[in-house]
Design a protein that fits this description.
about 160 residues, SH3 type barrels, five-stranded antiparallel sheet, three-stranded antiparallel sheet, 8 strands, globular
Length: about 160
């Protein structure tokens, strides 16, 4: 069996962009609904804190130097979605904070209410470091697995039994 030839079409990049557009569309629908999540839906969004365009306070960058997971469930405000990313207000240790996150920085998006998840490859490599879980909303750990550097996008369309 022969190896497949290298593609001159950047399929991986095209697929990653399309799947990140899913996140934008979902967040856009929440924004259009006045920031209300329908039913039991809630989101875990994991992103690279050092990615270009990410704006978070220094205290959070120091605490999460590589990757951070936020929860959009009960306590968030001012969700604004653009073509390139989103901004949202969250409270960390009772300190109101606005985060700006480009879609290109997102490495995972999970909606545990319906067992839906997307995992993205990072746009660039950073040394993986252990970090603490986000404290902004839920004590549940994120469902998404850590990025293992592969070119595989995990899509989970499983149903609850």
């Amino acid at each position: 069996m022969t190896d497949a030839p290298d593609s001159l079409i950047p399929y991986d990049e095209i697929v990653q962009e399309a799947l990140r557009a899913v996140v934008g569309r979902v967040l856009g629908q929440v924004e259009a609904a006045g920031g209300s999540l329908p039913g039991n839906h809630h989101f875990y969004i994991t992103f690279k804190t050092g990615a270009p365009g990410v704006t978070i306070p220094t205290r959070l960058k120091e605490r999460f130097p590589d990757e951070m997971t936020i929860v959009l469930q009960n306590k968030f405000w001012d969700l604004k979605v653009t073509e390139a990313g989103f901004s949202v207000g969250l409270s960390f240790n009772q300190v109101p904070t606005t985060l700006i996150i480009p879609f290109s920085a997102i490495t995972a998006f999970v909606d545990p209410a319906v067992d839906f998840g997307l995992q993205f490859q990072a746009a660039y490599d950073l040394d993986e470091e252990e970090h603490e879980d986000a404290e902004n909303d839920s004590p549940e750990p994120p469902v998404a697995e850590a990025d293992d550097g592969s070119n595989v996008v995990t899509i989970d369309f499983g149903r609850k039994k």
